[in-house]
Amino acid sequence: MKHWIKRAVVVLALLCTVGGAAAWYSRQENAQTPSFRTVRVTRSDLVVSIGATGTVEPEEVIDVGAQVAGRIVSFGKDVTGKGIDYRSDVEEGTLLARIDDSLYAAQAAEAEAQAQQAKAAVVLAQANLTQAKAKLYQAQRDWERAQKLGPSEALAQSSYDAYQSAYEIARANVAVSEASIVQAQASQTQTEAVLQENRQRLSYCTITSPVKGVIIDRRVNIGQTVVASLNAPSLFLLAKDLTRMQVWVAVNEADIGKIHVGQPVTFTVGAFPGEAFRGQVGKVRLNASMTQNVVTYTVEVNTDNSSGRLLPYLTADVQFELQRREGVLLVPIAALRWTPTAEEVAPAFREAFSAGSAGQGTESGRLPPAAGAAPAADHASAQGVLWVVEGRHVQPITVRVGLANRANETEVEGKDLTEGLEVVTGSQVQAAAPTDDRNPFAPRIPQRGGRGAGGAGGPNRP
User: Fold this and answer.
1) What is each CA distance from 47 to 319, 322, 399, 407, 444, in whole angstroms?
2) CA 150/CA 138 separation, integer angstroms
3) Cα–chain center distance at 307
């Protein structure tokens, strides 16, 4: 009997020892478990660009105004027969609106009557000249006969003098008649000019389209009175061709040197999220503007709008393409900037990692170029390190770093790098769940109070 009791005590002691050792080892192994955040290496096109904001503008806009004052009495018809309104298609010469022309018509009629009167005055002056010339001819014949006779018993001195005076008067009358014709003709020219002016002013009451295009804005209504004083009032805003649009982009002076004519451009608008439109630089304007000490230049970007989707005055997020890489491997910049601790590195690489950390630092300390920057002069020397998960540790992959885009992605290249490979971007330590490390075979003494999660309690009591 004592023999079995002795064996039971030995077995119980061995179980207690093994259980305690297993609990201690499990606590050491699970006290801190590293968890790595990873992303996949992707293959895509990479574009280095300069970002700016612009506004979609029609390529050519015409502001149709009024040159006379008056009340709008009617609108014209567009190419479909509908009344002129927003987005109406019009041809060159299409009637857009009419202004009340009663006053201008009366003035034109009065000017026309004055022109007719001046024309009649010219005819009358010409007739008077003919009459004066006839009288001059008669006076000249009488004066010639008087000169042949001379003052004598046949021709009294008074008669001689009368013929001479009549001749001189007739000559003067011809000169007066000729001057009257010139005066009448000048008056006729003046009245015809006044008539032309009034007719032109009358024609201004009819507003027509100067070109073929689309009505962007109608700024008047029927019955509204327009007043033309120093500035012509604007009635319609007409876009000549909406199939060709421009984006006016404000580019910072620090980036304007990288912009050139013909440069490819992509842009997006809020009206069509996720859809990219393409264009190219057409012109860099020289008139810079300054706002809060920031100098910007306006760049005109030409784009095709045959689909008609782009509307005037949309806000555009523009990317000027500087460089492009086709089908390259991309990783987030965070993957190149992350450096593990010595405990996280696989044992096979831990010694080299520790030596590198003690010296100039690991290759992972080399950061890729900033977004939008040009590549380094020595592309092969721009090296970095990516880390991949191997069990509970990570191991390094040396890569060459290329360009970076505005999405914080950078081009990488390496012999061990493949598309879809998961690389580490960060890590966090997960503490193991709390366990009861007391020996399950040890006797437990009941307690009152004690230290709990809420704070200190009173002394232990049996």
Assistant:
1) 9, 7, 20, 10, 69
2) 18
3) 19
Helix count (H) and strand count (E) of the chain?
5, 20
Per-residue pLDDT tens over the stretch 345-398: 888 888 877 776 654 443 433 344 444 444 443 444 488 899 999 888 899 999
Tally Cβ neighbours within 10 Å of residue 272: 12
**Least confident span in 5-9, 79-83, 205-209:** 5-9
What is the topology classification, in CATH, of domain 49-58+240-325? Answer: Elongation Factor Tu (Ef-tu); domain 3 (2.40.30)
DSSP per residue, 343-393: GGB-HHHHHHHHHHHHTT--GGGSPPPPTTPPPPSSGGG-EEEEEEEETTE
- Rounded to 5°, the CA angle 51-53-242 comes to 120
CATH number for the domain running over 65-100+205-239: 2.40.50.100
Q: Which two tokens stand for residue 158?
A: 């008074």
Lowest-confidence region among 70-79, 147-156, 235-244:
147-156
